[in-house]
Structures are given as structure tokens and as C-alpha cells.
């Protein structure tokens, strides 16, 4: 069998796949219409989860890569979902950021319309105005810690925390196609990404100039259009902006993850697990923080995280961001009694 003959067969298979995709979209559209006539919820998270589990099981039985098959079928489900209901999701742009990766991971099977916005405050504003259903915002990096601006916006905004998603941070050295390491005189990236690659920069590119950019994606976009310039960013950004990956996984710590919160006004049913997040303040008196947290210890409730954040208009006063496992209402009532201010941000689960 010749190469051309095999390629023709692949083209034929692709055409058949497209016909089957169209048929699946039509069937899902018919289900949506029927459910609306019967006044039933269009979305069925349990059915989707069971279907995906069955597909993964069948993929393994046929010797296919289960993870990639699951990703492909999430995209297929998302394609079909677009004809049933429209979900709009904002993330911190531009295209190619890790925020976009988080949005894709959380909403690929929903067929969401993803909208990159220039600032974190813009993402919160879009959710508050109702121009998008959800926003995806970075809250914590496993190496660099919490994102202060996100904490401030959670304190000031009326949006709820509806879910969380984790993204493995793989950083790559990216440049204009054809660029060699010895050609590079400037490296661009977001300050956090640069700090996460200190050892690599010192070891491999110690003589180059390092410049900061507003995002890893913006750095890649600039580097790809310049000679002698490289960027540190994601493989997604390289694909979007036509960059060549010169070196992969250059981050200093290989277990580098960023956690993102999904903010909105509507609960996400398919989230797994249960955590509650709150912001609170305590009087500036001895033992006030200990008293505020003691109900959690007495009830055996695990604190997932706690971090302090300065209150901007009251120097040397602090608020605390807290996440705890579960949704114990009695514990929240006791927290209110022992603090000067409490804001419950939401109870949520994790999206895979």
C-alpha cells in the first residue's frame, strides 16, 4: 500500500468523522428542544459524566490513550453543547495564557465561548454585569503563593466562587521559527514566570537581557515577531502565535501548579468535592485570630488554606482569606460571632 493510498484513506475517515459529528450535534439539538418543551433542565451533568466514563473505559479496551480520548470527547461534547445552551467565560488574556488553559480545562465539555480580557478587574466586572456567565482567575501558585490582586477583587466584588481548577505550569523557551540559542539576546516573560525559571536563565542564558511583560502570552507574541528575542511561555501560546519551542519544561520546579477560581453567580453542578471560602477580619487584640479559628479545630474541620492581606484604606490592618473543607453552617455562625466582619464567598468543588 502506497503512502498516497494511506493518506486518501485517512482523508476518507476524517470525512466520515465529520458526518458523524454533524449527526451527533443534530441529535443533541433534538434533545435540547424536547427538554425545553417538557420544561426540563437542558444540562445533565450526571449523564455527561457517565458517558465520559464509558468512553474512557472503551478507549482503554481498544488500546487507545484514555486521557487524550477523554479530552477529544470533551471537545465533542462542547461542540454539541453550543447548540443547546450558550455559556460565556472570561479569562485574563491575551490568548495563550495559562488562564486560557484553565478555562479550556474547566469548560471544554460545555462548549463555552471564551473571552480574553486585559485585566483581572475586567474579568470580575464582566461577571458582575452579567455579560459573561463565569470568570476564571488565578488565586494561587504552588511556588510563588497567592495572587494579591485576586484576593482584593474577591473582597470588593459581589461575585461568588463557583469552582476551582488546577493547571500544571509547563514553561518553555519560545522564539521566532529558525532561531538558535546563540541568537538570543533578550528574554521576555511575566515576572512570575521569570522567577520560576531563575536557575535555567542563570545556567543557560546568563548573558542575555531579561525583560518583564504583562503576561507570558504577550511575551510570546512579541518574541515571535522579533529577531534575537525569546519568550518564556506555554506551548499553547507557541501554537497560537506561530512560535518555535526551543526548549521545553524549563521551570526550576517540576511540580509547579497554578490554582484558578471560577467566579460567577450560578452553581456548577458537575464540580467534585466541597470547600467553602470566606474573607474575615478580627479585632486587633491578643488572641483574636486564635478565637476565630478555634471552632474549626473543635469540630475537626480541615483548613485548606489561610492567608492575610493588607486592607488598603486602613494601614497595618489585615483581612484573612480562608478555605475550609465542607460547608459547616454552625461553624460559619460561630466564625461570625468571633470576628468583626465575615464575607462568605461560596461553596464549591473542583473541575477536572
Could you explain how this protein is built, in words?
There is one protein chain. The protein has 352 residues and is of the alpha/beta class. Helices cover 41% and strands 27% of the residues. The chain has 12 helices and 15 strands. It has helices at residues 3-37, 45-61, 66-81, 98-107, 120-129, 148-156, 191-195, 198-204, 216-224, 235-241, 288-298, 329-337; strands at residues 88-92, 113-117, 134-141, 145-146, 160-168, 172-175, 186-189, 209-212, 229-233, 244-247, 257-264, 272-281, 303-310, 318-325, 341-350. Strands 1, 2, 3, 4, 5, 11, 12, 13, 14 and 15 form a 10-stranded mixed sheet that branches. The longest helix is centred in the first third of the chain and has 35 residues, at 3-37. The mean pLDDT is 90.
CATH-assigned fold name of the largest domain: D-Maltodextrin-Binding Protein, domain 2
Tell the overall outline.
globular
Largest β-sheet summary: 10 strands, mixed
Question: What is the C-level CATH assignment of the largest domain?
Answer: Alpha Beta
Task: Please estimate the helix content.
Answer: 40-55%
| Named CATH architecture of the largest domain | 3-Layer(aba) Sandwich
Strand content: 25-35%
Within CATH, the superfamily of the largest domain carries the name Periplasmic binding protein-like II
Structural class: alpha/beta
Q: Identify low-pLDDT runs.
A: none
Order of helices and strands: HHHEHEHEEHEEEHHEHEHEEEHEEHE
Number of domains: 4
Q: Termini, distance in Å?
A: 42 Å
Q: Give the beta-strand count.
A: 15
Amino acid at each position: 500500500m502506497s503512502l498516497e493510498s494511506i493518506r486518501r484513506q485517512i482523508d476518507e475517515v476524517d470525512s466520515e468523522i465529520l458526518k458523524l459529528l454533524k449527526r451527533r450535534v443534530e441529535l443533541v439539538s433534538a434533545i435540547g428542544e424536547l427538554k425545553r418543551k417538557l420544561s426540563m433542565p437542558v444540562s445533565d451533568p450526571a449523564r455527561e459524566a457517565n458517558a465520559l466514563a464509558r468512553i474512557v473505559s472503551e478507549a482503554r479496551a481498544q488500546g487507545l490513550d484514555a486521557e487524550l480520548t477523554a479530552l477529544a470527547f470533551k471537545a465533542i461534547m462542547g461542540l454539541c453543547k453550543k447548540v443547546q445552551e450558550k455559556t460565556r467565560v472570561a479569562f485574563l488574556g491575551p490568548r495563550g495564557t495559562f488562564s486560557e488553559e484553565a478555562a479550556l480545562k474547566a469548560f471544554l465539555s460545555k462548549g463555552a465561548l471564551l473571552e480574553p480580557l486585559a485585566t483581572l478587574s475586567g474579568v470580575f466586572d464582566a461577571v458582575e454585569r452579567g455579560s459573561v456567565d463565569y470568570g476564571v482567575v488565578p488565586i494561587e501558585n504552588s511556588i510563588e503563593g497567592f495572587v494579591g490582586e485576586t484576593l482584593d477583587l474577591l473582597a470588593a466584588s459581589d461575585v461568588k466562587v463557583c469552582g476551582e481548577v488546577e493547571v500544571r505550569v509547563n514553561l518553555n523557551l519560545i522564539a521566532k521559527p529558525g532561531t538558535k540559542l546563540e541568537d538570543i539576546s533578550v528574554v521576555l516573560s511575566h515576572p512570575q514566570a521569570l522567577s520560576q525559571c531563575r536557575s535555567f536563565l542563570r545556567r543557560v542564558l546568563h548573558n542575555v537581557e531579561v525583560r518583564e511583560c504583562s503576561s507570558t502570552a504577550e511575551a510570546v507574541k512579541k518574541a515571535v515577531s522579533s529577531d534575537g528575542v525569546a519568550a518564556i511561555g506555554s506551548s499553547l501560546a507557541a501554537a497560537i502565535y506561530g512560535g518555535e519551542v526551543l526548549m521545553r519544561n524549563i521551570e526550576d520546579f517540576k511540580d509547579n501548579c497554578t490554582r484558578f477560581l471560577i467566579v460567577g453567580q450560578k452553581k456548577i453542578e458537575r464540580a467534585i468535592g466541597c470547600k467553602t471560602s470566606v474573607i474575615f477580619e478580627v479585632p486587633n487584640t491578643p488572641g483574636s485570630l486564635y478565637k476565630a479559628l478555634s471552632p474549626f479545630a473543635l469540630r475537626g474541620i480541615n483548613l485548606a488554606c489561610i492567608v492575610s492581606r493588607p486592607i488598603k484604606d486602613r494601614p497595618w490592618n489585615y483581612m484573612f482569606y480562608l478555605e475550609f473543607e465542607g460547608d459547616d453552617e454552625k461553624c460559619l455562625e460561630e466564625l461570625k460571632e468571633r470576628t468583626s466582619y465575615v464575607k462568605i464567598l461560596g461553596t464549591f468543588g473542583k473541575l477536572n
